Amino acid sequence: MRFSPFAHSVRLVLMTKGISYDEIYCDLRRKPEFLLERNHIGKIPVLEVNGKIIIESVVICELLEELYPDPPLYPKDPFEKAQQRIVLEIYRAKVCQPMEYALRSFTKDNKDVDTVMDGLKIIERRLMKRETPFFGGPKPGMVDLIMWPFNEGLIILDPEYEMVRARMPNLFNYFQHMMTIPAIQATTLPRELHVQFLLGLLTKKFQYDFPEITL
């Protein structure tokens, strides 16, 4: 599904590693049989390689790292890799979940947006300690690519990232660096389409793909 941040993470890893792939979008309201045959609970993304099926976005991304180690997206040092994975786990717990709640009621005033910003402040502090443009170092790493689709979705709540700019200048600069990455430029959707999709989702009339968009 084009608007899934989980599928977007996998897409970014595939593109960053230069892996050729075929992509099939699914309408998750009417899950097609070919999806249910590969994942009986109907979740996406699903990766199929030579008939072997893998589900769960982070698992897929880390499998791609093992199958296609060049360019590496994790450091060789296991302790440094663990530190980067910690950032990802904090992000998923402190940012992703409250962002989901905030997006469900983004047309109303709600406290969940402030909760999202509080979570991002933790990520801001982690970034300041690293003293590098990206969490992966001088270039985006696995953690950057997995987190980015949720940051892109943040623009629904924070147009032009104005709240981030005012409260977290280092994270705002990080966002600017990320938006110069070719894989991200090639897959980024405008805010208007994100909003259109979300409004449709809330009214159960969403469009899971926009055929006129070419990525």
From TrEMBL:
Location of the GST N-terminal domain: 1-72
Pfam family, one: GST_N_3
EC number(s) on file: 1.20.4.2, 1.8.5.1, 2.5.1.18
Highest taxon of source: Eukaryota
Reactions listed under catalytic activity: L-dehydroascorbate + 2 glutathione = glutathione disulfide + L-ascorbate; RX + glutathione = an S-substituted glutathione + a halide anion + H(+); methylarsonate + 2 glutathione + H(+) = methylarsonous acid + glutathione disulfide + H2O
GO molecular function, one term: glutathione dehydrogenase (ascorbate) activity
Keywords tagged on the record: Oxidoreductase, Transferase
Domain GST C-terminal: 77-197
GO cellular component, one term: cytoplasm
InterPro entries: Glutathione-S-Trfase_C-like, Glutathione-S-Trfase_C_sf, Glutathione_S-Trfase, Glutathione_S-Trfase_N, GST_omega, GST_Omega/HSP26, Thioredoxin-like_sf
GO BP terms in the entry: glutathione metabolic process
SUPFAM superfamilies: GST C-terminal domain-like, Thioredoxin-like
PANTHER family to which the protein is assigned, alphabetical: GLUTATHIONE S-TRANSFERASE OMEGA, PTHR43968
Function: Exhibits glutathione-dependent thiol transferase activity. Has high dehydroascorbate reductase activity and may contribute to the recycling of ascorbic acid. Participates in the biotransformation of inorganic arsenic and reduces monomethylarsonic acid (MMA).
Family: Belongs to the GST superfamily. Omega family.
Protein name: Glutathione S-transferase omega
Phylogenetic lineage: Eukaryota, Metazoa, Echinodermata, Eleutherozoa, Asterozoa
